[in-house]
Amino acid sequence: xxxxxxxHQLGGPEALKWEDVEIGEPQEGEIRNQGVYKxxxxxxxxxxxxxxxxxxxGPGLTGRVVGDLVAYAGNPMGAYxxxxxxxxxxxxxxxxxxxxxxxxxxxLKGMTTEFLVRRCFKVEPGHTVLVHAxxxxxxxxxxxxxxALGATVIGTVSTKEKADQAKDDGCHHALLYxxxxxxxxxEITSGKGVDVVYDSVGKDTFEGSLACLKVRGxxxxxxxxxxxxxxxxxxxxxPKSIFxxxxxxxxxxxxxxxxxRSASEVFTNAGAGVLRVRVNHTYPLSQAxxxxxxxxxxxxxxxxxxxxxxx
Length: 311
What we know:
This is Probable quinone oxidoreductase. The chain is α/β, with parallel strands linked by helices. It has 2 domains: 2-93 and 278-307, Quinone Oxidoreductase, Chain A, domain 1, CATH 3.90.180; 108-251, Rossmann fold (3-Layer(aba) Sandwich). It is built from 8 helices and 15 strands. The chain has helices at residues 100-120, 137-148, 160-168, 181-188, 206-212, 249-252, 256-271, 288-296; strands at 2-7, 16-21, 30-34, 49-57, 69-73, 83-87, 92-93, 128-131, 152-157, 173-176, 194-199, 213-221, 243-245, 279-284, 303-307.
């Protein structure tokens, strides 16, 4: 038996219960890992990102051995546990140069950033990019990576404090939401518009984002924190020949090779100091409910990492 956070019914942080669970032994093609949307059934264990040590491997498995430090991000759900059975093809090795806490806080956001700036739209020197929620988890990394690639970065944020953070992350122009960001972008780009917009906000920014694009610009909508954008007719795109995409990281790390390349890019850039994460809060795994409560009540900033006792 191992301990895990379990949810038996939907609710607030109080629904997160610290309980004993039976996970069994790894089968063919699986490992057992320690440390480190709507569920189909109740109860379930939340969490889709973890770093831990391999404690057992299934029969016939090669490439992973007990003691390896590995990470995963995405499916399957169940990371809020002392141990977890995972498909070996879903885990990636963590380099010795990367602290486990850093790896846990950067892998999912980092791989999201990687496919956005390197494959969904390939940012190159001379490009101008607009990043909404520039001080958020992915937004922060987008500013850092795009700036390192030689792009001019324009970011939108909600407060002056977040504007300062965005600038520290390489954002050249940090705009407050209280401003008319379309007019400001037009001013900054001398009326040309930006090459690409990375929009995780959705409804509140979507139409403005389209207006900020240059001819043949790329609109990358990868989230909707303010709600789903209103539908737009295809006839709205031809005036600028706009490219519009709604990508998912899962489709950009669908194969083993893609996953390994993406994770390697993230860890390489983190090790080189190109990418930095702010791990401002850590909690014992057993106190996940408190972590969620603090997050919900805006008592936290930066990344939060849940740590298993003794890890």
